[in-house]
Amino acid sequence: MPLSLSHTQRFAWLSALLAEWQPLWRPLPFQHRGSPWGEAYSALEAALLELSDAEVARLQDAPFSASPLADWLPVAALAELVELPELTGEAGELPAAWAAHVGGRKWSQIEAFLPRVAASPDERLVEWCAGKGHLARALSRRGAAEVTALEWQATLCRDGQRLADRQGAAVRMAEQDVLAPEAGRWLSPETHVAALHACGDLHARLIELCAAQGSAVTLAPCCYQRTAAAHYRPLSQGGRERAAALGLSLSREELAMAVQETVTAPRHVRRRREQAGAWRLGFDLLQREVRGVDAYLPVPSLAYGQLPARFEAFCRWAAEQKGLVLPAGVDWAAFEAVGERRRAEVTRRELVRHLFRRPLEVWLVLDRALRLEEAGFDVELGTFCARELTPRNLLLRASRG
Ligand SMILES: C[S@@+](CC[C@H](N)C(=O)[O-])C[C@H]1O[C@@H](n2cnc3c(N)ncnc32)[C@H](O)[C@@H]1O
Predict the structure, then answer these.
(1) CA–CA separation, 307 vs 302, rounded Å?
(2) Which of 67, 185, 312, 396 is the most buried (most CB within 10 A)?
(3) Ligand 1 pocket mutation, candidates 102, 152, 185, 393, criterion most atoms within 8 A of CB
């Protein structure tokens, strides 16, 4: 049963928990040689390290269910606070032909999103950051009026317009930088903006423009860390006051934590990722020894497929990136083995951050909801699809009553 809390109450409670537990969720376990939480949490640390691989995998997938961390962390409260209703929409399958030129997963997301865009027949529809306007084409088929799709890349606009024309869909692709000062001209009290997975500043701008122009909006936000500001400034007045009072400040890197949960990758990709993680941790110990400095050293990331075939080659690459000269006679096998062992430990310690990911994401979306409520909107917040389809499944629906 989801809690019947107002958005303000839910936000207040989540703010308090996030602030109280920041010493546990802020540290990045891979940067620490041992426990990142010190003596105070040695029992938590011991319990984590005892977890079997199967238990770790289960908790990664379902961090709130039957969690052994509940003896130390506010698991039950967090679980309740992130439980949101699925927003209703007019059910019904869309004709398969509408899916032409849209990738399978993206189409399934559009199928889930579309019925939840509760625009009234007299509202003009606008898609925000539309790409090739796949959502706009689907929206246009629901009603008679033309849908405007805003996108700043000329090639996407051209391709999208061609697709719409060929399919006889009433869509106008409009080349528009939504961050430009004149972007507000597309919005009015008669418009309803739909935005599926619009990133940080792009959806923050949408919310500000809706508040200013009185446009209704249906938004699934994404990538909160894609923002020009290095530190998060809550959008709502209430959020700014509460965050300041609690000392809750978030860097861009910390915002990224809210969207780190991804749909499970195929087994071979996962194995490769685990290997890369273990090698990084093995190299970390090696560089501490070579430098004589017991501190983490960030190494650039490598695109998938560029990881060298062997541990030694990886270390030589990493050392070169950091301008380090490796001595002769390194016991590669020993460092590789220690890296593998550390990876198992880090994965277990990561379960603590994992518990706070969804709460942080919900907190960020609630801040957006409060901004619109402060501007006189009625706001609904819930989910629009199962997490397996996309973990970014939160939906905000708002209109000025
Ligand atoms: C994450 S995609 C979302 C696309 C589409 N809504 C979807 O769900 O597939 C973001 C889109 O926003 C566009 N975009 C990025 N910055 C923009 C800006 N300042 N103004 C307009 N569009 C922008 C990108 O070109 C891209 O097509």
Answers:
(1) 6
(2) 396
(3) 152
CA angle (208 as vertex; 202, 214 as ends), nearest 5: 125
Q: Which residue has the tokens 């861009």?
A: 252
pLDDT band at 264 (very low <50, low <70, confident <90, very high): low
Report which of 400, 6, 396 is spatially closest to residue 203, judged by C-alpha positions.
396
User: What's the pLDDT at 248?
Assistant: 97
Closest-lying ligand 1 atom to the alpha carbon of residue 179: 19
Q: Which residues of 95-132 are buried (b: 16+ CB within 10 A; e: fewer)?
A: eeebbeebeeebbbbbbbbbbbbbbeeebbbbbbbbbb
Residues 6+ apart with CB under 8 A from 286: 315, 326, 330, 335
Beta-bridge partner residues of 127: 149, 194
Write down the residue that tokens 């508040």 correspond to. Answer: 211
Residues with CB under 6 A from ligand 1: 106, 129-131, 150-153, 156, 177-179, 196-197, 199, 202
- Asked if residue 24 lies in contact with residue 41, where contact means CB atoms within 8 angstroms, the answer is yes
Q: Which of 200, 245, 244 lies closest to 222 in space, CA to CA? A: 200
Distance CA 173, CA 328 (A): 61
Average pLDDT, the chain: 94
- End-to-end C-alpha distance for the chain, whole angstroms: 27
Query: d(Cα 330, Cα 328) in Å, to the nearest integer?
Result: 6
The percent helix, strand, coil of the chain (3-state, each to 5) is 50, 10, 35
Let me know: does 393 contact 383? Beta carbons within 8 Å.
yes
Q: Report whether pLDDT(136) > 60.
A: yes
What's the confidence (pLDDT) of residue 90? 80
- Classify burial at 208, counting beta carbons within 10 Å of its beta carbon; exposed 0-12, middle 13-18, buried 19 or more: middle
**What is the C-alpha to C-alpha distance for residues 240 and 371, in angstroms, rounded to an integer?**
10
Are the CB atoms for 398 and 191 separated by under 8 Å?
Answer: no
pLDDT score at 330? 97
Q: Is 150 helix (H, G, I), strand (E, B) or coil?
A: strand
